[in-house]
Fold these 3 entries.
Entry 1:
Amino acid sequence: MKTVTRVAELRQQISDWKKAGQRIALVPTMGNLHQGHLSLVKQAKDVADKVVVSIFINPLQFDDTSDLSAYPRTEGADAEKLAQVACDLIFMPSLTEVYPQDMAAQTKIMVSGADDILCGARRPGHFAGVATVVNKLFNMIQPDIAIFGEKDYQQLWVINKMVADLSLPIRIIGGEIVRESSGLAMSSRNQYLTESQRMQAAGLYQTLLTVKQQLQAGEKDFVLIENQAKLSLTEKGFDPDYIEIRRAFDLALPVEGDMSLRLLAAAKMGNARLIDNIAVQL
Ligand code: PAF
């Protein structure tokens, strides 16, 4: 496994692999890797010859500077974990390698509709920051395939839309959510939780499961179900941002006859803002 920090060196390696006819998969990350990330790397190896993992904490996608400065930086431990799975190359660029000019002057990718709903509506500029850095990583690495975790379901939708809207020749694959035994979705942000909050935090998944049961039992008043679920989150010690029933395919509000739904939630517990989602098939 090789670690590269400069785009020029990265391009040389990628070009050698492409000349040899090898297919390249990218797993973009901000580091602080856990089992969820490692499962994406394993999935990448199943569909490509070479796997590149990028580790870059992208300031452009943080709407809160204290969140950015607190974000855990664990490059040494990350490299050790990646050496145990099938990663071929870690791309770990510096800030100036990715943004050589003033970030305020950076051209941004605004994915239409991303800022109007769910996390986009609560975190101004977040998805433009994500789409911009992912687009830059795509241009630097030129992967055939890129894999993103389904835990950030709206992010996966944003990337799929960007790829379709800009005709990028990259196949996007979603990786299943990896959960702790309590049901809590694995996330770098779980480490902001105390031990007791970590147990309580599994309540987010339990609430999603309850909503799923209600929908599958034929309950139709979505607004009432969402309001009850929000209340239930508050009772479980969360400060909920939203819990919403959406159409899985485009995250629009479901209409009569939609069978494939996604339940998405974001809620704060202590210092952590947690997100989670599950699929519901009617
Ligand atoms: O999901 C993440 O870790 C980040 O949003 C990503 C996709 C690496 C872009 O910075």
Note: The pocket of pantoate is lined by residues 28-30, 58, 61, 130, 133-134, 152, 155 (CB under 6 Å).
Entry 2:
Amino acid sequence: MATRVEITSDFWKRYRNLVRTEMIPFQWNVLNDQAGITIEKERIGDEGIPSEKSHAIENFKIAAGRTKGTHYGWTFQDSDVYKWLEAVAYSVREKRDPALEKKANETIELIAEAQEPDGYLDTFYSILGIEYRYQSLGGSHELYCMGHFIEAAVAYHEATGNEKVLDVAKKCADNIDDNFGPEDGKIHGYDGHEEIEIGLLRLYHVTKEDRYLQLAKYFLTERGKHPNFFKEQAAVYQGPNALAGIEKAPDKYFQNHAPISEQDTAEGHAVRVVYMCTAIADLAATTKDEELLQICKRLWNNITQKRMYITGGIGSTVNGEAFTLDYDLPNDTMYCETCAAIGLIFFARQMLRMEADSQYADTMEKALYNCALAGMALDGKHFFYVNPLEVNPLKSKLDPTKSHVKAVRPSWLGCACCPPNLARMITSLDDYIYTVGSEKILLNNYIDSLAAIQDDNHHLEITQKTAFPWDDTVSIIVKNQALKTEIIGIRIPSWAESVDITIDGNKVDNSAQKGYVYTNVAGGAKVEIVLKFKIEIRKYYANSMVSEDIGKVAIGRGPFIYCLEGVDNDGTVSTLKLTENSKFEYHPNEDILGGVGTITADGQRVESNNNQLYSTTKPVIKPAKLKFVPYYAWANRGENEMRVWVNC
Ligand code: FUB
Ligand code: ZN
């Protein structure tokens, strides 16, 4: 490994240990239907949601011929197993675990047995009708699942040296290559859900086999060139029900409305968009393609400047789990799927390979510390799919348009894409701290850690000592063991009011270029860079085009966005108000929510003085104390009202 980062941060070690000791074993039990839990439907009113069991491992056993039975679950049920395997890979990369590796190796054997002799891999069609494969790509998720497998395989191979898993992945990619592409006789199409493109590029990076890169490029550039592709396939399809009817969704749902070169706005299903963008950005960075970079920048700007929540969440509507239009950011009906925030983090990471611009790392950090982390309970065993910015638990129960907006995290969901996505994100967080380029190294995330960066261009160690995100000081010790000078770019976060920087005790210029302050570390030198951020409690106002946030304010400190929860605020938070003169105080608080910083403010409560629905009497305004907790930690103390955007 060219770069190895050991995370030593208390904040992140707790999460990473939780994933290793609770989440991965728990998910294994779920995948094997041995967790003894109730699986919830994502929302009411959709009878087609399979939620009696996971059956994911059983599907593989049936496809492998080890047991008899039929397929159960979504067409993409296999991906739950692959994401689990990927999380295992990163977890054992951090700390070898023979018992867990044995389970993973056995799972790989099972997957290999389920693979068709020609490399095709998908239990849904292997069980229900292999002759129908690749014929219903709008909803079948075959390539999506194989993409997840390939990602897991590359990660597991890199972590353990396991060759078998990489062989299965190559066979799988070769089968896709045999079946798709511009040549006559091949399918001129792509999957309804982007993901295979990410997997193929990862496989290319490890094997250097150009066919995989070309195939990823084909899928990306073919998309949107013939929007009727899914409909045409569906019209003649006679195989098992692979989300029948999905082809009638608007072309935008699949990012199939125009070639990617003509896509200026983020349209349709949010996870698909950011997975597509991640792959385009990886391809652009890998091939140094300027046109692809411009596509990425247009989509990035549209998402982050017009369609993203202050928590880093994306997807404004449950209808198609999708983007809607610029500035349409409702707080209590939105989607903000955990996977979408994670996908945005993937996209940001790829953008940093091309542009040393801190906006990417700022957004990565925002999505990570807020929307993504909120997807998981502090116990590591309960998960949100949807991450609202405002909840009234009764409305979620009684208003069918809000049934997807849950007030407490279920143990597991019928559509289980988010929990294993969180597991793989948290276990691979070490990959997001630095961007190692041939000319410079960017320090993107402040996380207590030890990094060894050793490749053809670099030979150095970087140690970060910090109690961030709760503290304002970071000591960075850079030991350059090479002869050449290293250029280190240090990110100045957008939430910092200012920063003092010293190098070996001497104050230095803190002017930044696109959000990074650069310093040279001479060959053979060891320097200590100390950053002291001025972090204040901030009031954020949304653009006035966001009608839902007019007259409201959101509170943040450092990377965290805060929220009000009923449990801290006499039950009801919708009647609370901040004023222009509200004074805020920050309190480190070890006693709640696993140790967080809370914020209090003096404000007001608005109360009607009669019980009429409408009245000519103005409500009474009473003084009130407001208490805020970090958004990521909400919904860990039972069912509660919650609000990010507070009346003011
Ligand atoms: O379609 C597979 C996954 O299920 C998507 O990424 C999620 O949004 C959920 O729809
Ligand atoms: Zn998800």
Note: The chain is about 35% helix and 20% strand.
Entry 3:
Amino acid sequence: MRAMVWESRFEGRAPVSILENFNSSIAADMFLFGAELRASSAYARGLATAGLLTRKELAAILGGLAAIEERGRNPEAFRPFEDVHSAVELLLIEEIGEAGKKLHTGRSRNEQVATDERLYLKDEIPALIGAAASVQRALVGLAEQNIEIVMPGYSHLQRGQPILFAHYVLSFFWAVERGKERLRDALRRVDVLPLGSGALAGSTVPLDREELRKLLGFAEISENSYDVVGDRGFVLETLFALALLLLDLSRLAEDFVLFATAEFGFLEFDPSLATSSSLMPQKKNPDVFELVRAAPGRLFGRLAQLFLAVKGLPSSYNKDLQEDKKPLREGVEDARLVLAAAAASLERVRPNRERMRAAVAPNLFAADLADVLVDRGVPFRDAHAAAASAVRIAEEKGGDIASLTADEWAAIHPLFGKIPEDIFDPLASIRRKKTSGSTHPDKVRLQIERAKVLLT
Ligand code: ARG
């Protein structure tokens, strides 16, 4: 039989263990234990300020909460309770007696859950942002150490134009940066104090909520008690921000898995992030990147789970909201693990400069050839058509545009005349990109500088 804070409501209640276990959330909400102790200590101080606790009672409660913190090391001790909130209250009463019975004056578990979850995320979101920054540091390192490597840039998974490998790698830096921004933005809405909302209508205790806000380090105070006890938007948007962050990393992971194939051969992985086969001894499998690729599915699943639990709920608190614990905790912990694994893997990737250079085939300069004609006064659409015929004619001959003779070029367009010497030089092509944010080496160096500023 579990100990409940509301036991006296029913007389001669015959507990049915399957139902008590079903109702209980203690197995899922112990991760809020630290937050619950902080929130309870702040609440006790608030009660004292409001004149509902004597100095002695407050001291007893604060001492008792500290003692319970010790007992938290043994989760077994918490098994018999309904949830972490009632466990702390009942253990406090056990610990200090009468004064403990006053802690819940004017308070509800509905506001405690919301407060604890927000306190938890106020710690976790900055840690997650830090973990994302480690991924970014690894990306900048990879880009900076290989600044002169060229590779084909792809769209539709077809070779498009030459780019710097560093430009490619940094493309993920900015995706992760947006992920960090989303988390920071979510944190703004997390950083709101619910305590003082009571069950749904507010508290009869004249609590100084500003004092509670300061004690718990919240940026703001919720405006509506009815709203804040039922709101889980802050959990959902945090999970979404994490899911999207992992979604971006899963695209990197898929690229890397592909780039490590014998067919591409662009990347080599340190054996520490690979596995081999129990049967095929030659295998070097990119397991870690495959798992990073799979990870957003789990996050999305948790997001969907909570989304659907909230969908169609009546406003204010409903027990369905108890279901938010697992998606919240597991989502946060999972994302942190994936970010750490991604960062550690990125530090152990070696690009193969020769293979990437070899993949920059002459046809990737077709757009550069159109530009040659544009420079010589031909309208772009005509220049594009001429370069396209060059590709087609070369293809018909079974080759690429580097195999065309001077006569053939002249026949395709008289202004092709003399093709610039460096037209099939990847770096020359890359240097012709002039815009900010382009793959031009100077612009890529600027990107690296800006990235580093963002990381300091
Ligand atoms: N264990 C509950 C939860 O996590 C705490 C709030 C319960 N409130 C209530 N009125 N039964 O949501």
Note: The longest helix spans residues 109-145.
